[in-house]
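## retry 2 of 3
previous attempt timed out at serialization; input unchanged, resubmitting
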Amino acid sequence: MPRNTKNRRDQIYQKILNENSVRIVDLASEFKVSSETIRKDLSILESQQLITKKHGIAEVNQDYNQLPLDIKMGEHIKEKEQIAKKALDYIQDNSIIFLDPGSTTLALCKYLPLKKNLTIVTNSLAIAQVISNTKHDLLFLGGKLQKRGKSMVGVFAMQTLEKIQIDTAFMGCDGFLNTGGPTTFSLEEMLIKQQVLSKSKQKILLCDASKFRKQGTYTFAKFSDYDVLITNPISKEEKELCQGVKKLEIA
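## retry succeeded, writing output
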């Protein structure tokens, strides 16, 4: 497939993600190709279960992008989407990435079809369900189910992680107010996070600005352990809370 065709389809998918639905005639005008060419592009995207076509309109495939109810009802959805888009810049084709349980990493999943040949490691049930519908390889950690976070924890998960080398880890947290680094409410989740950090070449923390005003029970890392922290606009005082991080990205 010509590179310009692949690029156009990626851009079309990105536009549909951003706008939820677009008209075929508008896509043809924007990309300066025929409506028939656009329909072929959309047929490919539909065959990959990314979008749905109907009555001259292309829409996001809601079955694919549906978030669990507890996530959908969460706050700061727009901010998490912006952070997820920025995080995509740090994913290389053909790499092994880890996705932490959490709403921001879950938001990142819908953009992963724009990348090629990923191996995705996760202990999140929700993320595993989404990735199972893509062409990427999935390594789902076994172990004990932590029902509150819908994640796998414990000895079996730790033993599996020990055998995996991760290129880039994307991790969330419950907050870091008055702490030296990101925190979590779960001791078992803390142990998983610490092992992921030890096995990852590049470590990226994803958190919306509300996390600067919250904190969990267990501090699982220092800010200096992270290569990048991606968040939405924050105050000067909030930036000082995480000044140990190597790079601060504002989405």
